[in-house]
């Protein structure tokens, strides 16, 4: 078990201090008098990095000597956020660093604010990957994360006159103190070109891919420090670089010249992270990104394997398991087949047997528009040999389908990797299921729907292959580091080993009725709310009442997440107050954080509407400060760390069946926020843990959603039957919130009425509004609310990512931990 942080000794402190000074002088070329906070930040990181790298060396040596089986987590996204606080905490050096800097006249908190977020992800999927590698290191499991070293992470959001503007994110502009370049492990990746069919001496058909261009993949390693500081794994991110190589053979082959013109500029491959977008723009480069990092990573794994086992492939499946984080790295499946069949010259069946024992796949969404499909023509152009291999995999698989359902062409059409139609498409989900030994969804309900609605035939063909692993979050970042006062209170009550054994929090439940503890717990919440109020004042110049309910919805902006349901309810409250100045409600601050994909028009319109309603409500004296609406720009990991500890109410209001899991729901509940939510994703499991009396569940469940869809959902019925809904929607059409610009908010009304309200906002509105009344009542009873909040924190043990990782290890990866001395 990793030990709790030790008390600060003068020796540690002085050592840390001199390391910081040394780096200020020798790494940064400045001194104590000249250094600004940015320089102090870098020097502090460098001092920390000395210890991190020692841990890394020990870990790598131990894993090498023990020839350990390892999991390789392939993910196009790792949303790491900031690392200094995390690394200090995990090494138990936070207090040491804090006091060392204090003696130098520097505030650690200010220094930490200098660190740019590593925003190499869109949202839940990328942050999950970051939590998972934290847990893997903490649990001393041999693991490596593989991804892309994007030069620009997710765009920075600015709000101008209420509208979202995207600006480039430049997290590395002034250098990143954590990363280490490893030129000794560069890989080469081929693209474009053509395939030559040859006949070997033994009569065997040989395929040779003559690539049109070759790019270099340069690995940059980020150390991943486990809690307790013993195991330090790596996150290996590949940066593309042009190689000198140009294939003159191909060039001279004449006919191919034009095709090769499409050569990508090698260094654009890892230039920018794509936002989850509705639009199809930049598709080709995205596929190249996926292949680029999958191929580099596979070759890296194989190089390491060969160092220990030479050309003997028989032990590969014992040493290597690869987890595919969604279908983004699915092209790794045909890539491994290519390497084994074309390069290592294994026969197809041997190679396929290896492949299907190595890969496991996690599905993160059921939304049809988010399921990846690539035009076969595009794959053929970029990866001609891979398309052949995909066809071969499919051909053999179709024979299996025929054996199971003889002559059933409908089944074949549905299960085929290839979707026939105007344009042939390659279904990456089907490829992933067929090429993996395990497939999992990310919450119970989601996994049930993966089996029942998305892949029912696969479930029938391979019973047990489709399974569930409920998501989790690391309590090191999402409680200990982001909420020090609550952590200290918990330590005092139940001891300090909960960060690695989160079920221990149950020990708080017995104090839920204790008035003193309730007061202490809510005092911490109040202090956190004051800090957030300062942040809100600073960033938006809005004054908020810290005794109001802090009602928080933080997540990507998408119709299925229904920020507009929240907004309609705010407008309804506002209207009630205008109609009846005595309308009885506890003051509320509605706080949003959300980025919209740049091409997602309606999502941007919803952000605009939130900001316009905020302008009006916040400045209307008739409201008497009872409602404030706050949209905090540029929602990101480091902002989440400030918002979550200060939240009273957590909005988890997706249409049932649409949110695969959610992980913000877990972070908020862990920090003592109560959930208002639908029976969707992990909300269901949160309700099971905390009990129905400690959560506000409302609205249709997934069966009711399906039933209403089947019978024909008519949003106009709700519009005409519920005068409040009608009034609020009609309000959007006026220029009340957008003076001089009537109709500026009309697209929201249109999507709900003319476009059929695809996520059934109106159907759930009244239930939501009623649940909000119950929230209001509960909050006014201070003791009742305190008790509920404490129970929420106490019952979150299940949602540690350590538990998720243990599920993966026991049921899928079959890994042993390896302790590092
Ligand atoms: C992608 C796209 C792309 C096209 C436009 C619409 C759209 C909508 C969503 C997505 C995201 C797909 C994958 C994803 O991020 N899923 C999230 O994974 C989290 C971790 O498992 C989970 O908690 C979230 O519920 C799930 O949405």
UniProtKB/TrEMBL annotation:
Its main location: cytoplasm. It catalyses: [(1->4)-alpha-D-glucosyl](n) + phosphate = [(1->4)-alpha-D-glucosyl](n-1) + alpha-D-glucose 1-phosphate. NCBIfam families: P_ylase. The lineage of its organism: Bacteria, Pseudomonadati, Pseudomonadota, Gammaproteobacteria, Alteromonadales. The keyword Cytoplasm applies. GO terms for biological process: glycogen catabolic process. This is Alpha-1,4 glucan phosphorylase. InterPro entries: Glycg_phsphrylas, Glyco_trans_35, Pyridoxal_P_attach_site. Allosteric enzyme that catalyzes the rate-limiting step in glycogen catabolism, the phosphorolytic cleavage of glycogen to produce glucose-1-phosphate, and plays a central role in maintaining cellular and organismal glucose homeostasis. Phosphorylase is an important allosteric enzyme in carbohydrate metabolism. Enzymes from different sources differ in their regulatory mechanisms and in their natural substrates. However, all known phosphorylases share catalytic and structural properties. GO terms for cellular component: cytoplasm. CDD domains: GT35_Glycogen_Phosphorylase. One of its GO terms (molecular function) is pyridoxal phosphate binding. It is an enzyme of class 2 (transferase). PROSITE patterns: PHOSPHORYLASE (PS00102).
